[in-house]
Amino acid sequence: MRLLEERIQTDGIVREGNVLKVDSFLNHQMDIKLFREIGKEFKRLFANEEITKILTIEASGIGIACIVAEFFDVPVVFAKKSKSKNIAGAVYTSKVESFTHNKVYDVIVSKKFLTKEDKVLLIDDFLANGNALKGLIEIVKSAGAELIGAGIVIEKGFQKGGADLRAQGVHLESLAIVDSMDDVTGKINFREQ
């Protein structure tokens, strides 16, 4: 998605440790006009699929998932990273290791919001090693729901997550795939799609 790649080049900041900061438009301050274009593109990429739920993980994926859900006219469910008093009853759970935070989370989804009748599209802002998506896939399987695919805004193509998920047969669509980035020069190279 050319518009997204241009925005990453203009406003993205490469940090040491393969960190790409896009918090000025994607995952802290959110550019809703850009999100609308992202939603349109995911709708185009998954246009032939029947989808009943969008599933994401808190927190950065929620805003994007909400805009995408408007295009599919379906609800968004997000996996919480901690159990709170307002989640009562049975839950699906999975362990997810965060690349950014270098921490393992127990993520949960209430069983009343994900059922075996659901056809699920996963949406997230980043894909690095694929741990968040693998955790969400585990939750979808636990619910007996059907995984339709996954939509990622930015994939770090030089990390193993995307290749692993595609090898497992997941229909994975990434709008921008970063092939390499340099924290000294700030240069970001994208994969041709």
From TrEMBL:
One of its GO terms (biological process) is purine ribonucleoside salvage. GO terms for cellular component: cytoplasm. Keywords: Cytoplasm, Glycosyltransferase, Purine salvage, Transferase. Its EC number is 2.4.2.22. Its main location: cytoplasm. Coiled coil: none annotated. Homodimer. This is Xanthine phosphoribosyltransferase. It comes from Megamonas funiformis. The lineage of its organism: Bacteria, Bacillati, Bacillota, Negativicutes, Selenomonadales.
